[in-house]
Amino acid sequence: MRDLSNLFDNNRRWAGEIKKKDPKFFLKLSKLQSPRYLWIGCSDSRVPANEITGLLPGELFVHRNVANVVVHTDLNCLSVVQFAVEVLGIEHIILCGHYGCGGVRSAMESAQLGLIDNWLRHIKDVEGKHRGVLARIKSKEKRFERLCELNVLEQAHNICQTTIVQDAWRKGRALSVHAWIYDLRDGLLRGLWSRHQ
Ligand code: CO
Questions:
Q1: Which residues fall inside 5 Å of ion ligand 1, going by CB?
Q2: Distance (Å) of CA 27 to CA 19, 35, 58, 153, 180
Q3: CA 130/CA 144 separation, integer angstroms
Q4: CA of 45 to the centre of ligand 1 (A)
Q5: 123 and 103 Cβ atoms separated by less than 8 Å
């Protein structure tokens, strides 16, 4: 534990600062969470969901994996979506990718990194589906950026196709799906697409 004492120091400082503003903050949160948003994003350490959206603990339900992929049979991701939509009653699902995504780059370059190559096959599928559009982009960096965007859009589409979202919409529930992209170079989010119901 010796090497990580700085993290505990940080934690005590962080909790202290929050309690200074609202002495009952953690007590209230320990009883109930009622986030309005579900964030599905990349595991990348440079894309911390709460920080970049300025949201506090309790305000954002989060699922992250390498390259923000939504696989139709991924029980982990689907369980998060089901719990968020049906139990927590969240109203917005945000699928957020980012430029400079290492997962997308590795897929594009067909890098051999081990087990994760199997996961990144899903990005190769996105690349294959949009081969024509991507082939017309001469610059490799621009092609990479476009694939990051296409990946977000495809994964947002996958979210819409889940039984959970389809059921919610069939029942007339107010639930929106948003595709966003985050730029590591300026810290800004940009909306690419959204579907409301
Ligand atoms: Co990434």
A1: 42, 44, 101, 103
A2: 10, 16, 12, 39, 33
A3: 12
A4: 9
A5: yes
**What average pLDDT does range 158-182 have in this prediction?**
97
Residue 36 has pLDDT above 90, yes or no: yes
Per annotation, catalytic residue among 77, 96, 101, 148: 101
Whether 98 is catalytic is yes
Rg (CA), the chain: 19
Q: Which of 4, 74, 6, 12 has its CA nearest to residue 40?
A: 74
Choosing from 98, 122, 148, 178, which is the catalytic residue? Answer: 98
Q: Could you tell me the distance, in angstroms and rounded to a whole number, from the CA of residue 90 to the centre of ligand 1?
A: 24
DSSP state of 96: E
Instruction: Measure 120 CA to ligand 1 centroid, in angstroms.
Output: 11
Confidence of residue 138 (pLDDT cuts 50, 70, 90): very high
Q: Is the pLDDT of residue 1 over 60?
A: no
Here the tokens at position 27 are 């007590």
To the query of whether residue 96 is one of the catalytic residues in this protein, the response is no
Compute the distance from residue 44 Cα to the ligand 1 centre, in Å: 5
Angle between helix axes 140-161 and 116-129 (nearest 10 degrees) is: 100
Sign of CA dihedral 66, 70, 74, 76: positive
